[in-house]
Amino acid sequence: MSFNQKGEKKRILIVSTAYLPLIGGAELAVREITDRLGDNYDFSLICARLDSKLPSKERIGSVAIERVGFGSSFDKIILPFAVFLKAFREKRPDVLWVIMAVQGAFGALFFKIVRPKTKMLLTLQEGDPEELILKKIGIFYPLWRQIFRRADYIQVISRYLKNFAIRHGAVTTIEVIPNGVDFQKIKNTSVFKKFKAKKNEALIISTSRLAYKNGMDTLIEAMGILVADGHRDLRLAIAGSGPDESKLRDLAKRLKIESFVDFLGLIEPDDVASFLKAGDVFVRPSRAEGLGSSFLEAMAVGLPVIGTRVGGIPDFLEDQKTGLFCKVDDPKDLASKIKLLLSNKKLYENIALGGKNLVDSNYDWSNIAMRMKKIFDSMT
User: Fold this and answer.
1) DSSP run (H or E) holding 87
2) Which element (helix H / strand E) includes 11?
3) CA-to-CA distance for 195 and 277, rounded, in angstroms?
4) Distances in Å between the alpha carbon of 77 and those of 9, 32, 146, 256, 259?
5) 40-90, pLDDT tens digit by residue?
6) What average pLDDT does the segment 332-341 reach?
7) Residue 156 contacts residue 175 (beta carbons within 8 Å)
8) What is residue 153's three-state secondary structure?
9) Which of 285, 276, 282 is nearest to 308 (CA)?
10) For labelling, which of 7, 197, 251, 294 has a CA lying 20 to 30 Å from the CA of 214?
């Protein structure tokens, strides 16, 4: 247990745009870490409400949550001011833990300027293309850059994001601590019952938000090439939802492969490992990626993976050893890599084993939580 100078558990105020039950890699990471460190610290979290059905205050696991706003996207505009006020109400937290350099981070920055002795930990989980991030920041770039410059410590989930932080002004210590995998959950999970490929079908699967950056259009086009080449013993199952869903469904229809592609919608986090166990190959031809936690989950259940050489993916994907690389925006190349994996049993087994061993050794949430604990303790 970690105590401050007053003999109290150290107070860590987490600043995030959203939190559970709204799900993303950053939100799940906070949950996994705080669940394991709840006996050591007093965690509270402030975020935008975004959905009017969500309570303004509740506790999830080890975290006391306060959601601000009325349940719309306007809540993100309110968030920086609410963060600033909450930090004062809590009589200066021992650590401000800022999840991503987005809306709430500006409130943490303002508090840091007023109370410079307060320690600020910045965690970067950004997965959008850098040009899109900068476009959103626009004229606020000089102020946004101060978030990186004023942070006392920066934790990033990939080497790509470490370089990103340096490019935008970081001068403090930057440590790469990736997201992880819950091996106990995987061990206790059976094969997904709600979906099953037909006998003798090879099942290609992907878990992904259906957004342009994740390249699901490239995957569907690759599936079209494979089917047109006579590989009618394949099936593609995509778990996820997002703004591009209707476009992707239309693409499958236009290519006349709708009977070979299943859009399963959102799958509950507890069912993801079960879904992955039903597959034969995991594919996500991303255009941008902060790390790629979905790949790690697939590798942990023993699936060979195919991905692109972008963002944080090269941190864990070594071509021909822990996965296969395909070219960005190249469905023909992706189709050839899928065919290679499914036709070469030795390569398939070697990649599946290599990926699983890598994840087993380096991506356990319990070990990652202990590394985060060292950071928290070093800052107070």
Assistant:
1) helix 75-89
2) strand 10-15
3) 11
4) 31, 27, 19, 44, 43
5) 999 999 999 999 999 999 999 999 999 999 999 999 999 999 999 999 887
6) 98
7) yes
8) strand
9) 285
10) 197
> What CATH number does domain 184-362 carry, 3.30.950.10, 3.40.50.2000, 1.20.1250.20, 3.40.50.2300?
3.40.50.2000
10-180+364-378 in CATH: which number? 3.40.50.2000
Helices 365-378, 25-37: axis angle to 10 degrees equals: 80
Sign of CA dihedral 333, 338, 340, 346: positive
Nearest of 57, 132, 61, 60 to residue 102 by alpha carbon:
132
Six token digits for residue 380: 């107070």
In this predicted structure, the answer to whether residue 4 has a pLDDT above a threshold of 70 is no
Give the mean pLDDT of 308-328. Answer: 97
Residue 5 has what pLDDT?
A: 55
Q: How far is CA 351 from CA 54, 117, 238, 305, 360, in A?
A: 43, 49, 22, 8, 14
Report DSSP state, residue 115. S
The CA distance from 343 to 324, in Å, is 14
Residues of the chain with CATH 3.40.50.2000: 10-180+364-378, 184-362
Output the six-digit token pair for 244. Answer: 């591009």
CA 216 – CA 62 distance, rounded (Å): 36
The encoded tokens of residue 203 equal 């099942």
Q: What is the 3-state secondary structure (H, E, C) of 121-149?
A: EEEECCCCCHHHHHHHHHHHHHHHHHHHH
Angstrom CA distances, 273 to 207, 301, 349, stand at 10, 7, 19
The conformation of residue 316, written as its DSSP 8-state character, comes to T
**Distances 271 to 39, 188, 267 between C-alpha atoms, Å:** 28, 11, 6
Residue 359: strand, helix, or coil: helix
DSSP classification of residue 53: T
When mean pLDDT is compared across 21-25, 102-106, 154-158, 359-363, the lowest value belongs to 21-25
Beta partners for 263? 238
102 contacts 128 by C-beta, under 8 angstroms: no
**Distance between first and last Cα of the chain:** 13
210-259 pLDDT tens trace:
999 999 999 999 999 999 999 999 999 999 999 999 999 999 999 999 99
